[in-house]
Amino acid sequence: MLKWEGSTAVCLNVHGEVLMVLQGKPEESKTWSVPTGGRDTGESFEACCVREVEEETGYKVDIVDKIKIKTGTYEELQVTYEAHYFAVKVVGGERKIQDPDQLIYDIAWKSINDLVELELTFPEDRCFLIDFIKNISA
């Protein structure tokens, strides 16, 4: 079984909206996700997170906090995964798709109300993201 390791960025703006990307392979239905990507050999999870946000959205970010590690298995793909989630803040750059994998189709700030309705790449993240926004905005 293959093992995937990567990082996920949770970035909120001043309106309590989360930065998300519409992504998918050309033949797939496109779904929304917070910026996420695989770690390069020898790269730290923190560096992976910062790089992925810039590649997928154009924004430069700083890590604010480590939130959690999500692990599991996608049996149908025969892949185990370990995703490190980080709270990040935008410190520069501008909204621009520059994904070298060409899997990003849109970038948007999404509200809690949007999260309830969106088709998510990782549906198991829906409650976590809504709770995260509520806790930060409280």
Automatic annotation (TrEMBL):
It holds the Pfam family NUDIX. PROSITE patterns: NUDIX, NUDIX_BOX. Keywords: Hydrolase. Residues 3-134 form the Nudix hydrolase domain. SUPFAM superfamilies: Nudix (SSF55811). The keyword Hydrolase applies. Gene3D superfamilies: Nucleoside Triphosphate Pyrophosphohydrolase (3.90.79.10). This is NUDIX hydrolase.
